[in-house]
Design brief:
The complex is a heterodimer of chains A (303) and B (276).
Chain A (H helix, E strand, L loop, with lengths): L5 H4 L3 H41 L2 E3 L2 E3 L5 H8 L1 H34 L5 H9 L6 H12 L4 H9 L13 H25 L3 H9 L4 H29 L3 H7 L6 H9 L5 H33 L1
Antiparallel strand pairs in A: 1-2
Chain B lengths: L4 H4 L3 H25 L16 H7 L2 H34 L5 H13 L2 H14 L6 H26 L2 H9 L4 H30 L2 H6 L6 H8 L6 H41 L1
Helix pairs in contact in B: 2-12, 3-12, 4-7, 4-9, 5-7, 7-9, 8-9, 9-12
Chain lengths: 303, 276
């Protein structure tokens, strides 16, 4: 386990090359248990999912002749397109709101908190680790027909009848998603802001920039990697969410994740569900690439 | 550590924003414990009075105890296995130069990003094609896939942070590889391991999406909550159960983050001291 001194390997190309190889081999050997689990748990299931998306349902079994019928259905039947678009709209809106609201918070902790910084970071990220189901459930308690808001407003005499639009709407889904994922957005934003060299800000001030110009020209561009990372970290997982729409969405708030879950549950058309999962992933990948491309172009344009 | 004077100036507006932000972040979840002590089956204001009957009710339910036992068993196994795998993975990544290393790390982090529903159904398809019946074992495997990236992400900074010369010194002084790991490496990464154990346990304990697809007749607590949610009269009992789960998660995670961060802070402090 002792590393070879550089001098020895110098001039012994073959030995050095062998050692290099064996170092990699030792690394892989050490990692192999984790790698095997990841392969069985991630790669293999995804490959089988792709295979299954090309099958069709046949009674209680599957017809394994490869066909793209499921994809044709996904492309032609309006319900799939509608739900996909809606999922992206809801997630996009939730992502935008979350990043917008979390940015000042991350900024505050990065630039204005000097004592007990750790406590602030722990406090901000703590809710993320608690049960997602329960955080969504909490919003149902709040937004419900006889929930916290309605009953409080009623007993205060501000409203005559319960506000029906609170629960079972797209608004409810957006609010809940934005709240539930806030803790996830904070960290990348905070890290990118914390990294900014404070002397750049001083230089900008010395050269006559006011707080607003300084923010627009230094802080915001330099924190863009964090903004992009946070956007991805929220947008991608939320597009496939089915808990929030199921508990708070109602008929108008159904998303693509619910449809996928239905195919594997009551509808019992697994190949269709597999095809929808693949379509969702393909769209996410495509949107992510477009988003990256646009931000890169914008960056080049600014620079 | 001299910083620009204007940065030191407190920004009142931001400060108020930050405090409101934290309140809004925690407030919704706090309604769950609040109403779990309410003496009414309706979750609404005005509250009716204080009671612990919902907790007593839970105590007498066989199904809750069974689900709790399942959750604990799965959580313990998953936390130990995922942390163990995370340790060897983090060790391999930091100790050896391997081609394709960053690709592997990205691959391992996939479960953090890809929507849970996709992994859930993909694993369900795999398990059913292999003819494995759904049970707590399949649930635990699903949890393992979700927990592994968190274990690696928690452990990597600890393994990256430490001084390799310590290990070399130990080897030079005649300890073999195993004893070097046990007596030098392990104590240095121990805070990371404890943090990883606590976090992965909490994630497994709270996990719903994978469990939803992969559980058979034996359920875990989150699945139990989900199945009871459709009965309005079960609402208060669910609030009580949720309160217990939330309290447990908050305590475990707070301790985990504190231990994990504390190690990093201590290093930073000693590094600054050494530097000045």
């Amino acid at each position: 386990m002792v590393s070879v001194p550089d001098a020895r390997s110098f001039g012994r190309g073959k030995l050095a090359a062998w050692f290099q190889r064996s170092e990699a081999a030792r690394g892989y050997a050490l990692m192999s248990p984790a790698l095997i689990v990841l392969l069985i748990g991630i790669a293999v299931p995804l490959i089988i999912l792709i295979a299954m998306s090309l099958w069709t349902r046949d009674g209680f079994g599957f017809d394994m002749t490869p066909t793209i019928a499921n994809y044709q259905r996904a492309a032609t039947e309006p319900i799939f397109g509608t739900l996909l678009t809606r999922s992206f709209m809801i997630s996009g809106l939730a992502t935008f709101i979350t990043v917008l609201l979390c940015y000042p918070m991350a900024y505050y902790v990065a630039f204005h908190v000097h004592r007990n910084k750790m406590l602030w970071i722990v406090l901000m990220t703590l809710p993320f680790w608690t049960s997602y189901l329960l955080r969504v459930f909490a919003w149902r308690v709040i937004l419900g027909y006889e929930g916290v808001i309605n009953s409080a407003f009623l007993s205060a005499g501000w409203i005559e009848a319960p506000l029906e639009f609170l629960l079972y709407s797209q608004t409810a889904v957006v609010i809940t998603l934005a709240h539930a994922w806030a803790a996830f957005a904070i960290l990348p934003l905070y890290v990118s802001l914390e990294k900014i060299d404070k002397s750049l800000l001083e230089a900008a001030t010395d050269l006559g920039d006011g707080p607003f110009t300084r923010f627009m020209r230094i802080t915001l561009p330099l924190s863009m990697p964090g903004v992009i990372a946070a956007s991805f970290l929220i947008f991608i997982p939320t597009t496939g969410d089915y808990i929030t729409p199921a508990l708070l969405g109602g008929p108008d708030g159904v998303m693509i994740g619910n449809l996928i879950q239905l195919q594997f549950g009551p509808v019992n058309n697994w190949p269709m569900g597999a095809a929808l999962s693949i379509v969702l992933m393909a769209w996410i990948a495509a949107l992510a690439l477009v988003f990256l491309f646009i931000t890169r172009k914008a960056k080049d344009h600014l620079a | 550590m001299k910083e620009g004077t204007y940065i030191k100036q407190p920004n009142r507006a931001l400060q108020v924003y930050a405090i409101v932000f934290l309140i809004v972040l925690y407030l919704p979840v706090l309604f769950i414990p609040l109403f779990s002590f309410n003496d009414s089956i309706y979750v609404r204001f005005p509250m009716q009075g204080l009671t612990i009957q919902w907790y007593v009710d839970l105590w007498t339910r066989e199904s809750v105890w069974a689900a709790l036992q399942n959750s604990l068993t799965v959580g313990l196994w998953v936390s130990v296995i995922s942390t163990g795998l995370g340790v060897v993975a983090a060790r391999a990544i930091t100790r050896y130069r391997m081609p394709g290393q960053s690709a592997i790390v990205t691959f391992a982090m996939l479960p953090l990003i890809v929507p849970g529903v996709i992994f859930g159904v993909a694993l369900l398809v795999l398990v059913s094609r292999l003819g494995i019946p759904l049970s707590l074992y399949t649930v635990a495997f699903g949890h393992l896939i979700i927990c592994l990236p968190f274990a690696i992400a928690t452990l990597l900074p600890r393994f990256e942070g430490f001084d390799r010369s310590m290990e070399e010194a130990s080897a030079d002084l005649g300890e073999n590889g195993w004893w070097t790991f046990w007596r030098v490496t392990f104590p240095m990464v121990a805070p990371g391991i404890v943090a990883s154990l606590l976090l992965t346990f909490t994630i497994s304990f709270d996990e719903f999406i994978m469990t939803f697809f992969l559980s058979g007749t034996d359920t875990t607590l989150p699945i139990y909550i989900w199945t009871q949610l459709r009965f309005p009269r079960e609402f208060p009992a669910i609030l009580a159960l949720s309160t217990i789960i939330l309290a447990l998660s908050f305590v475990l995670v707070f301790v985990a983050l504190w231990i994990g961060r504390l190690g990093v802070v201590r290093e930073q402090v000693s590094a600054t001291n050494a530097g000045s």
